[in-house]
Amino acid sequence: MGKNNGCLIIHGFGGSVHEVSPLAAYLQERGYQVICPTLKGHTGRKKDLREVTYDDWLTSAEEGLLQLISSCDRVFVIGFSMGGLIAMNLGIKYKIHGLVTINSPIYYWNLKRICLNIINGFKKRDYRNIRRYLKASRNIPLAALFQFKSLLLKTKPIIKNIKCPLLVIQTIDDDTVRSDSANYIYKKADTEKKKLKFYEQGGHLALRSIAAQSIMEDVRTFFGEIEEIAQD
């Protein structure tokens, strides 16, 4: 396979490459040339995130995609969470061979799931989700939330322009993205080859959950199907 296949993997809003690094390593081990750009402003400092726009995030990812296009025969784009919104924009703008969205928002904040997570966290004395909610509330400036919302509003009406093969992945117990987001993306995309895959468990950070291995294998299988078609 060599480096004929390239993959751009885009992390989420307020996050980092850490969110997607298991998938990056998995694909690299199987011969893919992988680029995981850090979106502009995502340094971990609230000040830096306050000073950027969603155009800056699109540009950060686009630069990585252009590198892959120049060096690979086939290029795939994967977007996690908000990264999926960016991935869809790039998949419409450029000719890519496959697109994957993982827990990407159309409808966000599953308040019922958040409340359950908080209650269960106190009951089980497992405070990981509670710490994650507190960290997000402290580290995300309002200006960045506005940019996220603007990116979502920009992306939603153009999903119908997706023509490349598409795999939509969603964990049902995601507390950040409502699962009907996946149904929306799947139904609106105007491509002949598209798949929708739900996982019962995995939370929002699916690639660092018990569902990660299954998700990675499903992504690789999807890519393999596309590669087989390209070789026929």
TrEMBL record:
SUPFAM superfamilies: alpha/beta-Hydrolases. Keywords: Hydrolase. One of its GO terms (molecular function) is monoacylglycerol lipase activity. Its EC number is 3.1.1.23. Gene3D superfamilies: alpha/beta hydrolase. GO terms for cellular component: membrane. InterPro entries: AB_hydrolase_1, AB_hydrolase_fold, AB_hydrolase_sf, Esterase_lipase. Signal peptide: none annotated. Substrate binds at residues 13, 82. The active site is at residues 81, 174, 204. Pfam families: Abhydrolase_6 (PF12697). Residues 8-207 form the AB hydrolase-1 domain. This is Thermostable monoacylglycerol lipase. The lineage of its organism: Bacteria, Bacillati, Bacillota, Clostridia, Peptostreptococcales.
